[in-house]
Amino acid sequence: MKLKIKMMNDKHFKELSKKLDTLIKLTAINALRDRNLTDQVGILSEIGLMPKEIAAILGTDPATVRTLKSRVKKRKANNKEEETTPRS
What is the dihedral of CA 23, 13, 55, 75, to 10 degrees? Predict the structure, then answer.
């Protein structure tokens, strides 16, 4: 039995990419629905999305995403500091 392998042209690749982007957005929106915007940004950032991508998913501005990422980073640093500080 012979298999024919068909190469994907640019048009098909772009269509597939667009569909995958839509699925990613829908999955992210569903998974983050009960969280505040700062937590949403933190989670999407942790999985490797860039501010522009996060902004597109959440319907906000990339500058807002960068600001919220900074807050998340500060919050994590404060939590880590509290965990390592001995209690008396």
Answer: 80
| pTM exceeds 0.85 | no
Structural domain boundaries enclosing 67: 28-80
Q: Which residues touch 45 (CB under 8 Å, ≥6 apart)?
A: 54, 69, 72
Query: Residues in the chain, how many?
Result: 88
Of 77, 79, 55, nearest to 67 by C-alpha is 55
**pLDDT(87) > 70:** no
State the residue for tokens 């629905």.
Answer: 33
Answer yes or no: is 43 within a domain: yes
Is 21 within a domain? no
Is residue 75 in some structural domain? yes
